[in-house]
Amino acid sequence: MCSQVSPPFTLVRPRAGADEWKLRADLPGVELGSCSVDLAEREVRLEILSCAGEPDCLVCRLPEDVPSIDASQAACRLSKRNCCLTVSWVGVVCETRSSQRIADPVRSVSLAQGKLAKEGLKNMADLDARIDSLTKEC
User: Fold this and answer.
1) pTM, entire model
2) What is the spatial distance between Cα 111 and Cα 115, in angstroms, rounded to a whole number?
3) Tally of CB atoms within 10 A around 37
4) Rounded to whole angstroms, how far apart are CA atoms 49 and 119?
5) What is the DSSP letter of 32?
6) What are the pLDDT tens digits along the chain (138 aa)?
7) CA angle 79, 80, 83 (to 5 degrees)
8) Cα(first)–Cα(last) distance of the chain, in Å?
9) What local confidence, expressed as pLDDT, does residue 20 receive?
10) 26: enclosing H helix or E strand
11) What's the CA gap between 38 and 55, in Å, rounded?
């Protein structure tokens, strides 16, 4: 359920059938009133003021297989009781072209040839000629 992201961040992937992603930052001993959060599409930046007043910045970059964060739709929650920050957003993971497979390439070619024949075209050259004639008509 959890994906490894650099501590103190933990990435929680959505449950089956859901699309809400969560990134949790555990911040024990940090006064949460001294925190600021900056959301970008591919990272979350957390700035914490130290006791000396110096800012300390923590950055979590999202792994490539995680959908981008839409800052206008994301929700940030600070929990004083649990000493944590939770960022949640809705995202759908899209398959990359390299991971998409044609189930049966021979059947796909047969279907394409059947569609060409239905249109009265015997091969790709006929299709190209038909496209050229339609372009000239326009």
Assistant:
1) 0.60
2) 6
3) 15
4) 69
5) G
6) 334 466 688 999 888 888 899 999 988 877 767 788 899 999 999 888 766 677 788 899 999 889 999 999 999 998 888 888 899 999 865 544 433 444 444 444 454 555 556 666 666 677 667 777 777 765
7) 80
8) 55
9) 92
10) strand 20-26
11) 14
Amino acid (1-letter code) at residue 19? D
**Strand arrangement of the beta sheet that strand 43-49 belongs to:** 35-39, 43-49, 55-61
Beta bridge partners of 73: none
The structure tokens listed for 126 are 């006929």
Instruction: Show the tokens assigned to 26.
Output: 């555990």
Q: φ, ψ for residue 137 (rounded to 5)?
A: -65, -35
Beta-carbon contacts of 90 under 8 Å, excluding residues fewer than 6 positions away, are 19, 20, 21, 70, 73
